[in-house]
Design goal:
Largest sheet: none
Order of helices and strands: HHHHHH
Number of strands: 0
Distance between the termini: 63 Å
Helix content: over 70%
Shape: rod-shaped
Number of helices: 6
Number of domains: 1
Strand content: under 5%
Structural class: mainly alpha
Length: 251
């Protein structure tokens, strides 16, 4: 009996030790998991803050491009509805207008943090599905803008650039005698020799009445209007995404 009591006590002691070890391991695992979760959350918050900083810049970027394209659409309309220039002064105004239409800036989104999330495989750190899907959808919207720009570029080259360069005097209101960094100095009416007035005005009148060029202006008006609306829509979308990110950071 004494022996049996000793064995029973030993077994109870051993079982107690095992239970304590298991409890200790479970506590250690829980602490480790919590620490890992805190580290992941810290990374997530860091990424979200960087994404938010990029998106704040994108609000202004898209606002500027919306205004840029809408101004070009307005200028196309003005050129289509105005009379052909009849004087050198009217020619200067006409030239300023079509050169505004001709200027081409490519939209480049500031989405460096999102690209890093994709390339590093860390997109899954963003646990909020609405934010994650929102960033992926924004990338699609950027792709749509790029596709529309590419489409418009082809029409610009065929209807506007080629027709203009082949048939009329170009860049006559820039000083080509004095190279400099950036654009050459712009010339005024007084800087153009009177002997050149006739040809320049005749060239502009030909271009103004050329059906290919006018078709190009119509297409440019529509495409720039579409792009202006796309950028305005993207701006609103980004503002909503920023609001969601701010709520997630504050959570």
């Amino acid at each position: 009996m004494l022996t049996e009591n000793k064995v029973t006590k030993y077994l109870l002691y051993a079982i107690g030790e095992i239970v304590l070890v298991v409890i200790g391991i479970l506590i250690a695992l829980q602490i480790n998991n919590r620490n890992e979760a805190q580290k992941e959350r810290a990374k997530e918050i860091s990424y979200l803050r960087n994404v938010k900083a990029d998106l704040l810049n994108e609000v202004q970027n898209n606002e500027q491009f919306a205004a840029y394209h809408f101004k070009k659409a307005e200028t196309c309309s003005t050129l289509l509805t105005s009379e052909a220039p009849k004087s050198i002064e009217e020619l200067q105004v006409y030239t300023d207008r079509f050169e505004l239409v001709f200027v081409w800036y490519v939209f480049v989104p500031n989405n460096n943090t999102f690209k890093e999330l994709l390339s590093s495989g860390n997109l899954n750190l963003i646990k909020n599905d609405s934010i994650k899907n929102g960033l992926l959808e924004l990338d699609k919207l950027y792709a749509n803008i790029s596709g529309t720009e590419h489409h418009m570029r082809r029409e610009y080259e065929v209807y506007l650039y080629d027709t203009h360069v082949k048939n009329i005097s170009a860049l006559e209101f820039f000083d080509m005698t004095n190279p400099k960094f950036g654009f050459p100095d712009r010339l005024g009416v007084k800087d153009i020799p009177e002997s050149a007035y006739g040809k320049l005005i005749a060239d502009a009148q030909w271009q103004h009445n050329d059906q290919t060029f006018r078709n190009g202006l119509k297409l440019a008006m529509m495409n720039n209007g579409v792009l202006a609306d796309m950028h305005r829509t993207v701006k609103q979308y980004i503002q909503e995404l920023i609001s969601a990110i701010e709520k997630e950071i504050a959570r």
